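= Paired protein data =
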Amino acid sequence: MGLAMGMLETRGFTASVEGLDAMLKSADVKYIGRRKVGKGFNSVFIEGDVGAVRVAVQIGARRAAEIGEVRGYHVIAKPNDSLKEVFEFLQEGDDFVSKKAAKKAEEAKKAEEAKKAEEAKKAEEAKKAEEVKKETKKKDTKTNKKKK
């Protein structure tokens, strides 16, 4: 049997924590992330053996429903590799974003740093050119004084 992914979506943070706690205690599953969906909805994600995830999600949904509203739950028995990329989580503060979005942000930051470095290089070159111009002007002034 392959790894499965389980999802539980609730209205309110407390219900999602209660459901997640029940899922983690009920079977040999691993927490893989949380997503704030919006309008008070939260989703929690687990992975593990197909049977363990099925049992854990059912128990988690029941426990979450006792203290809040369960919007939905689902188990994907053998997620496609490209689907797994959607659910790779990276924590940033209190929110989670996909690794792809974090990678784009990192690339934008590197591009900005490269742009600043290029601007600094151009400024340094302009400064050197100005110094050369001043030196040339001084030499021309000295040469002109000698000719007179």
Notes: Residues 90-96 have pLDDT under 50 and may be disordered. Residues 3-87 form a domain with the Alpha-Beta Plaits fold (CATH 3.30.70.1710). The first helix runs from residue 13 to 26.
